[in-house]
Structures are given as C-alpha cells and as structure tokens.
Amino acid sequence: CMADKERWPLYNKHNKTYPWEETDTNKMIDVIVPIFQMVSWEYHSWGDLPNNTANWENDRLVSLIVMRNPIDRFLAGGKCGLYHNSLGGVPDGPRTPEEQALFWNYTKDPCAHNFALRILSQYSPDVHNLEKHEVDFLEFVKEQNQNNTNETTNTTITKDDYEEYLLQRDLDSAKAYLRRMTIIIDQDCLIESVIAVGKLLNLPPFPILEAQRKTAMGTRHDTARKRIGNDTLYEYIQERFKYDIELYRWSKSQSIVKCNATYKQ
C-alpha cells in the first residue's frame, strides 16, 4: 500500500508482495538499488514469509524486521477482521457486554492466534487443523509411546499435547528465521532503534526522528489489562498467545536497542 507503483520495475518477474527467491537475490539487488534505497513488506497470512524467502545472508543486503508486543498488536486490531474499528481505545467505564463479546471473539479468531509466530514459522498453519491431520496426530502419539520406556507410567497423549508440540516447533523455527536478519528492532523503542540503525549504516542524521523521540517520551498508553477491561479475558489472552509472547521476549534480547529488557504486561 506504500509502494511507488510507477517506479517498480515491471519487467522483472517479482512483484511487491513477496521477497524474491534465494537464487535471484543478487539479480534483484542490481535491479532495485538504482531505484529504491529500501523495500518493505507486510504479512498477514500464516506461513507466507519463510516459503518465499530471499538470501538474507547476502553481503550486499541489509535485512531488518520490526517485532511488536503481541498484546499491543492484538489491541491494534491489524488485519484480523478489523475489530479495532468497533472496540476503540480505553473506555470511560466498564466495557459493555457487546464490547466484551467482541473481545472474546477476537481472541479466539484464528487470525489473531500467535500471529507473528505463525508468519515466521517455516511450517504451514494447516498442520494445526487436527480434523484434517488426524493421521499426523496418531503418528505423534505412536512416537511418544515408543519413547516412553517407563512401563509403570500410563500417560494419555491428548490433542492439546500435540498442539503444544506444534507451537513449540513453530517457535524454534521462527527464532531460526529471525537469526538470519541483519537487524531486529523492538517497536517499544522504534524511534531510538531507527536512529541507531542510521548510525550503524553511516546514514545522515534524522532531525525529525529526534523531535518525534522527545514527543514520544511524554506519551504513554494505559496498560493492556486496563484497555481490555476484563481480568479473566486478559489472563486468557496471555495463555493463548504465550508462544507469540515468548518469541517477542526472545527477540527483545536480540534487538539493536535494548529499550526494555523484560516483557511488559
């Protein structure tokens, strides 16, 4: 939506939606650099990014990814059904029953479930549909039973156990993908991080960013718990998005600016 459509080289086979394939990275750098200083992509479909990947390790390429607090992303609404159009910001009083129902629906929406984790994982989100992949679940149960050599233990493997296994696998995969990025930015200190990137790349100073940084220092959002307005729902969100939260916590330790060492609830 922010692309310079008129200047994009139409003669190449790649569009503005996905990064080019690994084998085309050098070629595309030659094509793009004379026209653009930076190319950006946004993703909202699970599994899109790793399956359409560039050679991020290319010495001529600087890759950058911005990681966001999963609860802040959730409250922003994003591309998940445009819930933010109906929910709004912090209420003057308790949430109405209609707003509470919208929050519960949003929390359970597949689009919002561990959003960044599932985009960055190399595994298709389709594997989480256990109705379609009953055979995979049964094979998992068989492997777990074979690995259990303690005959006195009679542990029942449930579909919840299998879902936890899949999410942990997604988490490991997403971390591996993020390790390929040149720079990771924590959105909690976005302006400071962009300034740091500029210094790292020997770019000219950004006076407007310095001004925005001073303005942002005086701006603080209410806590997520207050904005949601329901402790039970808040705790449920923490549990449902726990792998996305763990990925974000880990990414904070890898970011160019360590603005907050711990995850803020």
List the helices and strands and how they pair.
Layout: H1 25-32, E1 64-67, H2 70-76, H3 84-87, H4 97-108, H5 115-120, H6 134-147, H7 159-178, E2 183-186, H8 190-200, H9 207-217, H10 224-228, H11 231-240, H12 242-254
Parallel strand pairs: 1-2
Sketch the topology as an H/E string, one letter per element: HEHHHHHHEHHHHH
Number of strands: 2
Rg from alpha-carbon coordinates: 21 Å
Strand content: under 5%
Estimate the global geometry from the Cα principal axes: globular
Q: Looking across the biggest beta sheet, what order are the strands in?
A: 1-2
Summarize model confidence as the mean pLDDT: 77
> Mind summarizing the main beta sheet?
2 strands, parallel
Number of helical runs? 12
Helix content: 40-55%
- Report the structural category: mainly alpha
Report how far the terminal alpha carbons are from each other.
31 Å
Structural overview:
The chain is mainly alpha-helical and 265 residues long. It contains twelve helices and two strands; from the N terminus they run αβααααααβααααα. Strands 1-2 form a two-stranded parallel sheet. Helix 7 packs parallel to helix 12 (242-254). The model has no long low-confidence stretch (mean pLDDT 77).
